Fold this sequence. Notes:
Mean pLDDT: 86
Shape: flat
Largest sheet: 2 strands, antiparallel
Number of strands: 4
Low-confidence stretches: 163-176
Helix content: over 70%
Amino acid sequence: MHFIRLIRPVNLLIIVLTMIGVRQYMLQFGEVTNASLFNFTLLVLSTVIIAAAGNMINDYFDMRADRVNRPESVIVGKYIKPRWAIVLHWMFNILAFCVGLYLGWYYQSFIFLIIHFSSITCLWWYSVSLKKKPVIGNLVVSSLTVLVIFLTQKYTAMDSLVGEQIMYLSHDRVFDIPSICIIWIFMGMAFVQNFAREIIKDAEDVDGDLVIGARTIPMIIGRTATIRLIGVLLVLFPLIYFTGVFFFFTHFNWIQALPITLAALTNVLAFVVALFSKQENAIVFIKGLLKLSMIFGIIYLFLPQ
């Protein structure tokens, strides 16, 4: 049970649902010729394993900070020996990298090796030092979140005839790419929302970060200014969505897109909360709204288009 808590199963489940949702969404817009469920399962498994290993190593280097921020949640050093956290971390990463090697060989592409190796390296580097620096650590984690969507999109396009068709039109907006464009818009929104979420976590963890000598955004500009910054970031979510829909889609079904539209409006509400709510109440409320927005986004991917 302690090991399961260490790898954060809810976060891993979100990764699985996101990858399956992106694949299901894209497969609606192309002729499936060789979509391998076995290989896709391996891809999801390797991604989840890398994320789990990242959680382990993050908790290993966060032992001192977690004793201050959330002592009741400390696992490494309390229930699991630190050396076992390191051993399991590298065992998981080696297994995931081997899957990347197989997928690279099968599809004759280096993209799986590059992304797997980059993700493993970035998660280690983040845990060791980047998380103690302002902005860059938040950017790394947010980019890795987007990389999950990008990897799934590239795999699906590679494994089937999906996403390459472009329909030229005589309107002012000259093209319509239903599968690719919405995924890239989705990636932009996911990046903004996860970037804001990482800053929220920094705002909650200031006391523990002081212990490990971190220098995060909330420690530089203060919690109140940080909450305002989070609001500004979150309003980018609906801006990316509505701008993307306007410029890249000549015909857009707003009824089918209701969940992702609700996700955008939820971020608008979070923006309002961040600007006008009291500091002690805002973070908890915003975190709840971001979870709701994430659920809406995942639901959208599974709906028939």
